[in-house]
Amino acid sequence: MQTAQPDEVYNLAAQSFVGVSFDQPITTGEITGLGAVNLLEAIRIVNPKIRYYQASTSEMFGEVQQIPQTEVTPFYPRSPYGVAKLYAHWMTINYRESYGIFATSGILFNHESPLRGREFVTRKITDAVAKIKLGKLDTLELGNMDAKRDWGFAKEYVEGMWCMLQVDKPDTYVLATNRTETVRDFVTLAFKAVDISIRWEGSAEDEIGIDTATGNVVVRVNPKFYRPAEVELLIGNPQKAKDDLGWEPTTSLEDLCKMMVEADLRRNQQGFSF
Fold first, then answer.
1. Pick from 8, 165, 166, 199: most CB atoms within 10 A?
2. What does the H/E/C string look like for 226-246?
3. CA triplet 247, 250, 251: central angle to 5 degrees?
4. What is the spatial distance between Cα 95 and Cα 36, in angstroms, rounded to a whole number?
5. Collapsing DSSP states into helix, strand and coil, what is residue 58?
6. What are the strands, taking DSSP E only, across the chain?
């Protein structure tokens, strides 16, 4: 911090995969939680005028206490990742109030793009759909098909982050689309992007997705992908960001899903996928 002398700091650093946080809770806490405090302390010591953005997360809401979730919804995290992020979130507020630092927290709901890592469910889905379309994979295996998420386009959310540091006063803002869909819905949209229609049969661990044209089973549920504690539903209301920042999402989930599938088709056609 002393060497770089930045005007703005955006803390996006984290062990951000919820599933891994159950296997590595200490590492997740050190990186995701204490890492934020290290940055806040550096700002306090080096230059308290530096503006700081903390990447908070909808996972802090966990077992939701209100629908939709807003900046004043009580938190109830359901994973070590969510707990670590909540610690960083409250420390950001504490440094704002204790030291007068311009420290803003953005509670971002799931934001996706073709650059999303394949360990995350949306990208796992779009990459698998591309492989199935190209004949490189037979079946996509997933966990909780009923989990509902508010998915938006990462590019627009990053623009929202920047907007948060351009206003006169630091605050907390939700960035979301105010629309929620199940994992099953996302799978259906992804296959639709490659002109494959899916028929769903069964329930829970016996649920399968069938290609209506071929009769092939292309989606199965595998219990190994279940989490010890599930977050069943997330949906955010971004009205405050719209009012204060002039921010609102414009990319539909259908367009986002198609964008990701097409990118994975290109990668797999070229013989690589990352």
1. 165
2. CCCCCCCECCECCHHHHHHHC
3. 135
4. 11
5. helix
6. 8-11, 51-57, 103-108, 111-112, 140-142, 148-149, 152-153, 172-175, 181-182, 198-201, 208-211, 217-221
Given a cut of 90, whether residue 273 has pLDDT beyond it is: no
Please classify residue 268 by burial: count the beta carbons closer than 10 Å to its beta carbon, then call 0-12 exposed, 13-18 middle and 19+ buried: middle
How far apart (Å, rounded) are the C-alpha atoms in residues 173 and 111? Answer: 15
pTM of the predicted model as reported, rounded to 2 decimal places: 0.95
20-67 tens-digit pLDDT: 999 999 999 999 999 999 999 999 999 999 999 999 999 999 999 999
Cα 214 to Cα 141: distance, rounded to the nearest angstrom: 19
Q: Distance between CA 129 and CA 107 in Å, rounded? A: 30
| DSSP class of 69 | B
Give residue 274's pLDDT: 77
**How does strand 181-182 pair with strand 148-149?**
antiparallel
pLDDT digits (tens, 9 = 90+) for 98-148: 999 999 999 999 999 999 999 999 999 999 999 999 999 999 999 999 999
How many angstroms separate the CA atoms of 61 and 78, rounded?
8
Which amino acid appears at position 212 of this protein?
T
Radius of gyration of the chain from Cα atoms? 20
Q: Show which residues are catalytic.
A: 57, 59, 81
